[in-house]
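Minutes, structural biology subgroup

Action item carried over from last meeting: produce the structure token record for Aminotransferase (Plantactinospora endophytica). EB confirmed the sequence was re-checked against the source entry. Recorded below for completeness.
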Amino acid sequence: MTEVGTSVPFAPWNFMLDVDGVNYSLSEQAAFARNHTGTEIVNLSSGINALRPPPVLVDTVADCARDPLFWHDYDGPEGHMVARAAIAAYETVRAPGGVLVDPTQVIVTGGASAALVLAARGLHQLGLRRSDRPTALLPVPTFPLAGAALADAGFAVEEAASGTPGRWLPTVTELTGAATAETTVVYVNTFNNPTGECYTESELRSLVRWARDRGAYLLHDTVSSDVSATGDLPCLPAIAAQEDHLAGLVTVSSLSKARAVPGFRIGWLIADATLVEELARLNELAAPSSPGIAAPALLLDRMIMLAVEAAEGRCPADAAQRGNDLLVAALAGYPQVTPGLDEVTAAVSTALTDEGTVEQLRTWRTELRGTLARNIGLLCTEAGDLVVDVPAWRGDFNTFVSIPALAGQGYLDICHRLFREYGLQTLPAPVFGKDERWWTRRGSYWTRLSFAVPTSRWAAGLERLRYAVKELSR
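Output recorded by EB:
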């Protein structure tokens, strides 16, 4: 009898599964609760926004659940047409330089992870046309599921680490210098998870030119880039269009983590329309229909965010109206076959003129940014003796820190002990690239912290971490 292997051929992902096998095991959590009565489990490394979601989004989904537009027959493997049109309208208005995104370039998925898996499978098929061993290139450290998805799709995965003092994210020269003749995909995460870093516009332009000249694809993950950014980020689609390589860009994103609505599980993928057709055929295997009930949240969020960003001076004053016009135009041919469409588009148009609705989402995002700033400040001022080497905060809700007192101890052992003995869920460095030996050689003990939580909970978690580290380092 042949033994069936279950591991993805990507070591960081399997390390994460070993972490999660304890930290997120219901039986392990129940055991902790029994053994530590009254002590709440605190997740210091979740990587999601754990603050309360904007009420307007939750209310919209609840209301739209009664609308036949969102519970009619299958949407098809490309996803719900309303959600596709909303993404296309938002991206078209937000991108400078006349980048036009059509709904045919969008696939709606059950979250960004599903989009990454789908993109990896499709890009591998394209890579096989160029090489018998298509290779994907990742910076280290970065989001582990990207490497896992690419490896599981059949890519050989190469990891590039920074040799530049003061930064984890490898320079573009360092990244491309690690490429081989078989490199067909480069993964870029904005903000980089776990370090919160991002490439500048000039760096991205250099990367796009390199990819264009090599005929390589850029797989761009923007899950956390639009909520917590403290300022405008470079627009990679606009840069790719200017450098004549827009067809070589695949973008994935999601509302699930950023808006604290993971239960809605809605994400998306944007690519060249021809590639989207091929990806939709692959998507039919696993997802013959998108999570349609999540579409109204995406619809309202994208349109209202244009109004919010216009109010903040991030895009033209008429951005919301332009986005709504594009949305309505894209859906104009469907009312006869889709019940409830006219009512939904009319409701969105009304919401865009409602100052209360716009202000609710604007206030929510402002409060989120304020919490992030307070929490990262607390980390640096109150826990400076506990964690060091905190990267400069650029707006993300993840950061990557060193805990010198734990240097030399086993990453998995410490991680599991932090949970079983102290109720702290953490994600140590080997989750984000390379292996435990590589990280041990770098000294200290590195881990991701995610601080998009209420400040009181964050402070309590840091205090418990301080106590745990003192005990574990004896």
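Discussion: Residues 55-356 form a domain with the Aspartate Aminotransferase; domain 2 fold (CATH 3.40.640.10).
Next step: EB to file the record with the rest of the batch.
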